């Protein structure tokens, strides 16, 4: 999956997504995910950096996504 604009709000909302998974559960017919599974899943996206110009957004994205050896942020 490719997420444009530096992931939009994803880097800011990751903690809320993790909390909602714990509080409300995964939803009918879906497997419960651990915090690390949620983070690994979101880190597996490719993040386009077009219009991702805020230092705070780029920092949050760097904390969420490991640096790729091929081209900087994935």
Specify the biggest β-sheet: 2 strands, parallel
Class from helix and strand fractions: mainly alpha
- Which radius of gyration do the C-alpha atoms yield? 13 Å
- The overall average pLDDT, rounded, is 85
Shape: elongated
N-to-C CA distance: 11 Å
Give the SSE order as H and E letters: EHHEHEE
Portion in beta strands: 5-15%
Strand order of the largest sheet: 1-2
Figure out the total of helices: 3
Give the beta-strand count: 4
The low-confidence parts are none
Helix content: 40-55%
What can you see in these coordinates?
The protein has 74 residues and is mainly alpha-helical. It is 46% helix and 11% strand. The chain contains 3 helices and 4 strands; from the N terminus they run βααβαββ. It has helices at 10-24, 35-43, 55-64, and strands spanning 2-3, 46-47, 67-68, 72-73. The strands form 2 sheets. Strands 1-2 form a two-stranded parallel sheet.
Strand and helix map with partners:
Blueprint: E1 2-3, H1 10-24, H2 35-43, E2 46-47, H3 55-64, E3 67-68, E4 72-73
Parallel strand pairs: 1-2
Antiparallel strand pairs: 3-4
Helix pairs in contact: 1-2, 1-3
List keywords for this structure.
single chain, 74 residues, two-stranded parallel sheet
Short précis:
The chain is mainly alpha-helical and 74 residues long. 46% of the residues lie in helices and 11% in strands.
């Amino acid at each position: 999956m490719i997420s444009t604009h530096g992931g939009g709000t994803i880097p800011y909302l990751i903690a809320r997504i993790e909390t909602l998974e714990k509080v409300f559960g995964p939803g009918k017919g879906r497997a419960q995910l651990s915090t690390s599974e949620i983070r690994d899943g979101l880190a597996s996206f490719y993040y386009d950096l077009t219009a991702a110009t805020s230092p705070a957004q780029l920092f949050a994205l760097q904390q969420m996504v490991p640096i790729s050896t091929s081209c900087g942020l994935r």
